[in-house]
Amino acid sequence: MMTSRLLIAIAILLTALFLQIAFGDVLNIWTGLVLAALIAGVFFLSIPELICVILAAVLILNWQPAWSSEIFVFSVIPITAYFVKTIIPFQPFLSNLLLIGAAVVFFYALFDPGVILHRFGLLALDAGASMIYGGAAFWILKMQS
Amino acid sequence: MRKDAAVPVVLIAFLLFLILFKPFYGWWLRNFFAPNPGEGVNLDARLENEALKAEIAKLNVLSQNPTRRPGYVSAIVYSRYPFNFKNEILINKGKNDGVLVGSPVFFGAVLLGRIEKVFNDDALVQTVFDDRFQLSAGIGNSGVKALFKGGSLPKLSLIPLAPPIAEGDIVYSVSPDFPYGAPIGEVRNPAFSSDRLFREASLRFSYDLGEVKTVLVKK
Q1: Is B111 helix (H, G, I), strand (E, B) or coil?
Q2: Are B22 and A65 within 8 A, CB to CB?
Q3: pLDDT value of residue B68
Q4: Is the CB of B19 less than 8 angstroms away from the CB of A63?
Q5: Do A59 and B209 touch (CB under 8 A)?
Q6: The pTM is what?
Q7: Residue B180: pLDDT above 60?
Q8: Which of A100, A126, B56, B123, CA to CA, is 20 to 30 A from A17?
Q9: A121 inside 8 A of chain B by CB
């Protein structure tokens, strides 16, 4: 049961990686689909499983042979969401969407706050795409569990 | 340890080993996911066309034909920055190959960026699509000067009102940090600035960054 849940989570992660990299390479627009997949996993995976999929994402997304603040924050957000989810007073599906939206906005606010003011369309596109993918990932994991 | 926790724990140890000691496998997987948009389809011809246009512009601006500097090293693109905040690529040549911080990087003959960080066997390239990238640029046969500002949609600004520029004019580097006349792209949609004291324009590039698989670095 646990192994199949982990395999499905990895499949969702790999699909997110493919879509994020394909859109980024072709359109030069990078979305937070991988982050969304990890946050959706927060509601179904145990801590070891969650760390496992986070590390798989880091292995493929880390673009340099050194640690970076972006990758560090990217890794910490799902772990934080794992503990924060219990204090959000909504149904899990809504909490999932809320956490994904908040994570995307937090990521931009931390590393390029100018985007929020000057390129709001990019932020809206990223948050929207991430929430749609995260919502779909949530339902797939829910059906399996 | 419970039996059902063994699988993720073993995977965590394996992934940590790869991340810390063999990151190359991650870059290989990343390239496995990456599409090859239009790779090879007229790309060489487009790059050649841009280089020739820049050469003509350069000959019109300079009284002598500058020789191309020797000492370039070819490098393979390993990976690419995966968020919207920067635009960087990782290449497989570093300190051990004589690559230095600030060295110009080319895709064909077209200026792609500069070396931002050097590791022993790899280096990080800040591309012209990075918000932090800017340089002095010349435009077309007249050689009118402008400020090139990088970003997801790079722009030319502070272009004097005369002499005139036109759609399709070649844009090339006149910065002392890069070889003179290195082509960057072509003028697109020239217009007056909001205060009408200057002109500004966006740029058309003969390649997509996703197509860039090998680059040349000046040693």
Answers
A1: strand
A2: no
A3: 44
A4: no
A5: no
A6: 0.84
A7: yes
A8: B123
A9: no
Judged by a CB distance cut-off of 8 A, whether residue A64 touches chain B is yes
Any long-range contacts for A49-54 (C-beta under 8 Å, 24+ apart)? A49/A2, A49/A5, A49/A6, A49/A9, A49/B8, A50/A78, A50/A79, A50/A82, A51/A79, A51/B8, A51/B12, A52/A6, A52/B8, A52/B11, A52/B12, A52/B15, A53/A6, A53/A9, A53/A10, A53/A13, A54/A78, A54/A79
As given in the structure block, the two tokens for residue B16 are: 């940590």
> Nearest residue on chain A to B27, judged by CA atoms?
A60
Select from A26, A107, A112 the Cβ nearest to the Cβ of B210: A26
Q: Which amino acid is at B128?
A: V
Residue B61 has pLDDT above 90, yes or no: no
**Residue in B with minimal Cα distance to A123:** B84
- pLDDT, mean of each 10-residue run, chain A (145 residues): 83 95 87 96 94 96 91 96 92 96 95 87 94 96 87
The confidence band for B4, taking pLDDT boundaries of 50, 70 and 90, is confident
Name every chain A residue with its beta carbon within 8 A of the beta carbon of B27: 63
CB neighbour list of residue A72: distance below 8 Å, 6 or more residues apart: none
pLDDT band for position B38 (cuts 50, 70, 90): low
- List the single residue in B with minimal CA-CA distance to A16: B33
CA B120, CA B76: separation in Å to the nearest integer?
15
Residue A20 has its nearest CB partner, among B7, B82, B209, at B82
For B192-204, the pLDDT digits (tens) are 988 888 999 999 9
Of B84, B124, B129, the CB nearest to A64: B124
Residue B145's pLDDT is what? 93
% of chain B exceeding 70 in pLDDT: 83
Q: Does the CB of A22 have a partner CB in chain B at under 8 Å?
A: yes
